[in-house]
């Protein structure tokens, strides 16, 4: 962890009408941390951000900043600032005046304002743009101006609500790196909201995965990806094969008609579980009675690897490999013990007849012209 506790959310609940948007959120955010709230639309991540910023109040629960309760404290009195997706630049002001706006409210003298504006524009690689009309700037440049304006008042925490959502793919990737550099250079806390898993994995020190108003898992990107705590996290963070399995004993599991050693323990004997295997962790071998046998249905070239859909007795496996088989070929598949991730079943997942999730999704779409990444 980068620093001491700076923000604490304690049992935060928010209700809109009859809909409970946040259901007892508890979250610790540390100083100098790049933390990302990640989840699908409607999961409560933006509401959480607005509560931290003071733009709305929870019906229940407490918000602490440096150990002091700040419920009811208005946004302008909190040591935070916000960058919104639409930037909210003032169209009648040039770049200089947009960035200087907060300092003019504080009635700073012009030499000090000029020095700080120059410093911020250098930080976002836009020095020399001071006289430009903001309406003449590209989307990426406007976003940089919005960041400079938010940072010029030296907030302890910067809130970013899907700020890259309006940018094209290439510019979005470039700005991911720029944002991380800015955060590291300023050494302050960034709280970032997105539904984009790649953004979260690329930039974050800590990821908070949310769904249906609840936190599903909090951890480092590597932990979230490699050790998802439930099927939702496994499906949402990257692609996964989620298979029904049976833990015969510690470190020994049965799935897909075969027996495998694993590194998990603490389950009941013969407990039904979910097995998570990432596509890149599947090893293609010659078919034998020691591996999972399937028939290649589809092959898609992805640039750095091939993506294959392999059918094994009705279960559709997603496999990423640098070597491609041809459709119709029979393949053997195996996986190393450390790449087999075991999760306890919850709710209706206890049904032993539950179909494989990957199989269900693929079967619901047309076989023609569909890229599996669109699922």
List keywords for this structure.
five-stranded antiparallel sheet, 375 residues, 24% helix, six-stranded mixed sheet, disordered C terminus, single chain, alpha+beta, 9 helices
Provide a descriptive summary of the structure in words.
With 375 residues, the chain is of the alpha+beta class. It has helices spanning 45-53, 95-105, 110-123, 139-151, 169-186, 197-203, 221-226, 231-236, 357-363, and strands at 5-16, 19-30, 34-38, 60-65, 68-69, 80-83, 157-161, 189-194, 206-211, 214-219, 241-249, 252-255, 258-261, 271-277, 283-285, 292-301, 306-312, 315-321, 330-334, 341-344. Helix 2 packs parallel to helix 4. The longest helix is centred in the middle third of the chain and has 18 residues, at 169-186. It is elongated, with a radius of gyration of 24 Å.
């Amino acid at each position: 962890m980068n620093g001491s506790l700076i923000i604490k959310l304690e049992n935060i609940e928010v209700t809109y009408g009859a809909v409970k948007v946040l259901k007892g959120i508890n979250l610790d955010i540390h100083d100098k941390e790049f933390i990302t709230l990640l989840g699908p639309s409607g999961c409560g991540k933006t509401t959480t951000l607005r509560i931290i910023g003071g733009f709305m109040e929870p019906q229940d629960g407490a918000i602490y900043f440096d150990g002091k309760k700040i419920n009811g404290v208005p946004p302008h009195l909190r040591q935070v600032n916000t960058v919104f997706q639409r930037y909210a630049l003032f169209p009648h002001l040039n770049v200089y005046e947009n960035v200087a706006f907060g300092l003019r409210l504080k009635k700073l003298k012009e030499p000090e304002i000029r020095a700080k504006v120059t410093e911020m524009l250098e930080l976002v690689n836009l020095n020399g743009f001071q006289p430009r009309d903001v309406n003449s700037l590209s989307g990426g440049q406007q976003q940089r101006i919005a960041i400079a304006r938010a940072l010029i008042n030296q907030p302890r925490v910067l809130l970013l609500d899907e700020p890259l959502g309006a940018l094209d793919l290439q510019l979005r990737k470039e700005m991911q790196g720029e944002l991380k550099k800015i955060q590291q250079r300023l050494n302050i806390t960034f709280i970032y909201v997105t539904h984009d898993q790649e953004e979260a994995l690329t930039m974050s020190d800590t990821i908070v995965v949310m769904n249906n108003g609840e936190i599903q898992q909090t951890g480092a990107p590597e932990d979230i990806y490699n050790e998802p705590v439930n099927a939702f996290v496994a499906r949402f963070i990257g692609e996964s094969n989620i298979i029904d399995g049976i833990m015969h004993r510690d470190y020994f599991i049965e799935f897909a008609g075969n027996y495998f050693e694993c590194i998990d323990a603490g389950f009941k004997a013969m407990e039904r579980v979910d097995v998570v295997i990432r596509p890149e962790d599947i090893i293609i071998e010659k078919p034998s009675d020691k591996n999972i046998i399937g028939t290649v249905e589809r092959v898609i070239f992805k640039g750095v690897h091939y993506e294959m859909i392999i059918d094994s007795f009705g279960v559709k496996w997603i496999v990423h490999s640098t070597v491609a088989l041809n459709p119709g070929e029979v393949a053997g598949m195996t996986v190393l013990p450390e790449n087999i991730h075991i999760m306890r079943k919850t709710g209706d997942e206890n049904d032993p007849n539950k179909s494989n999730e990957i199989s269900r999704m693929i079967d619901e779409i047309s076989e023609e012209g569909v890229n599996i990444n669109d699922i």
